[in-house]
Specification:
The protein is an all-alpha fold.
Length: 455
């Protein structure tokens, strides 16, 4: 640590960003948790599997498009650290334009996406029938979700974690309330079951985008409109934005390919293992989003410091966020070690599903500290705009680590749910090792603002 700088002076800005970021991130999986818990109380187990399989496709769409949020934060954070308002504004509008194009493209090809996706994911005839109906409605909210990702990326890159907190929490509260009304037919709403859960997501997406625009106009007007505008089609800046986003997209698609392969394997084990996997996946996501509060703090602080030319401070913030993230991972590890089976009972009354979840207790609990370090390292390198390395590291972990292990354990040795999740643990280890090696060096501390691209 820099002489004369106490740990508390690092913790304050970290927590100022991490606490609202953590609250916002933890609220994100509430959409999936609300859908899973409420649909889990409907009479047929197949309905829970239907939401699980359809949600995997939306993971591909939304997590796959998560580069819009990450790429915007990565670029805006360094412009913000350098005091470049016009650069921040131009990065926002370029990303919004990209989000609009992608959103419209997804709507245009939603039929083939669903056809291919449900063939790959598998599941029983009932699972496929209800899953397709859920997908066909929820996909209508995709363009709004993508634009909101960009807005939240801009807010975070500007070192403001409260704006995305407000947008995210309000969005998810609307989703939960609409779930309760439309799934079960409360408050005069029609009782739509799985279809109601899909419409609730669309309503929530529209609410989130509208609120994000209001926050932008109310609190960021000077940044966005108060400086001389840059050309949105500047070739150097466009190339840099596309390179950043393509690498982050590739990184995420590698991860999602591994997750799709995993759920496809589990879906062919039967409805009970698939339902158990749906429950465990929601709890796994809760941890990732919780620790992401510190990862997001690392994105903003590391990016701001590198943009300002202070490489030493960037490393100090990176190191301190790793400490905080590891502590959060240990906390979740303890919770799941003693309470995973009981928590599973909150999701569904089906005893066979709860028993299948309980069989994963040791695996789920042990891996959480490792997960936390991986998530924070991702945040550090996103803030540093080290997107190319993140893509290469993820591709190695997914295709040289997880995929062969999953084939061996599940297909060749005919293992069950525990074997599938064991292979996923190897994926996390495969992500950690190259990221830790990169962190020990100094190559990630270069900033794109001083490169020959002129960006």
């Amino acid at each position: 640590m820099r002489p004369g700088i106490p740990a508390g002076s690092l913790d304050r800005p970290i927590l100022r960003l991490a606490v609202p970021g953590l609250l916002a991130s933890v609220s994100v999986p509430l959409i999936g948790i609300a859908d899973t818990a409420m649909i889990g109380h409907l009479p047929e187990v197949a309905l829970l599997g239907a939401v699980a399989t359809a949600s995997v496709l939306f993971d591909f769409l939304f997590w796959g498009a998560g580069f819009l949020r990450m790429g915007t934060t990565s670029i805006v954070s360094q412009h913000h650290g350098a005091g470049d308002r016009s650069g921040s504004a131009a990065a926002l509008f370029r990303a919004l334009l990209l989000a609009a194009v992608l959103g419209l493209l997804i709507l245009m090809i939603r039929g083939p996406v669903a056809d291919i996706g449900f063939v790959l994911v598998g599941g029983s005839e009932q699972v496929q029938l209800w899953g397709r109906q859920y997908f066909d409605i929820r996909v209508l909210g995709v363009p709004l979700v993508l634009a909101t990702l960009v807005l939240n990326g801009f807010f975070l890159g500007s070192a403001n974690a409260w704006a995305p907190l407000v947008v995210t929490v309000v969005t998810n509260l609307v989703n939960i309330v609409a779930d309760y009304a439309l799934i079960f037919g409360h408050w005069g709403a029609p009782e739509l079951g799985v279809i109601g859960a899909a419409w609730a997501s669309v309503v929530a997406a529209a609410t989130g985008f509208a609120l994000g625009v209001l926050v932008l106009l109310a609190f960021f007007r000077e940044t966005v409109f108060g400086s001389r505008p840059q050309s949105l089609l500047d070739p150097g800046r466009l190339r840099h934005m596309l390179s950043t986003n393509l690498n982050l997209c590739g990184r995420t698609l590698c991860l999602l390919a591994a997750q799709l392969f995993m759920v496809a394997l589990v879906a062919r084990m039967g409805e009970v293992p698939l339902a158990a996997h749906a429950v465990v996946w929601q709890l796994w996501s809760l941890v990732s989003y919780g620790v992401d509060g510190f990862a997001h703090a690392a994105e903003a602080l590391v990016g701001n410091r590198l943009g300002a030319g202070d490489r030493l401070a960037a490393r100090h913030y990176a190191r301190r966020t790793l400490v905080w993230g590891a502590g959060a991972g240990l906390l979740f590890s303890g919770i799941y070690a003693v309470g995973l089976e009981r928590i599973a009972g909150w999701f569904t009354p089906h005893a066979e599903v709860v028993s299948a979840v309980a069989s994963l207790t040791v695996l789920v609990a042990v891996v959480q500290p490792l997960n936390a370090l991986v998530f924070v390292l991702d945040g550090i390198f996103i803030g540093a705009n080290d997107a190319t390395y993140l893509f290469r590291a993820m591709a190695l972990a997914a295709f040289a680590g997880f995929a062969p292990a999953a084939v061996l354990l599940v297909i060749v040795l005919e293992g069950g749910l525990v074997s599938a999740w064991s292979a996923y643990l190897l994926l996390m280890l495969g992500r950690f090792l190259p990221l830790a090696r990169r962190y020990r060096g100094g190559a990630w501390q270069r900033t794109f603002l001083t490169t020959s691209t002129g960006v």
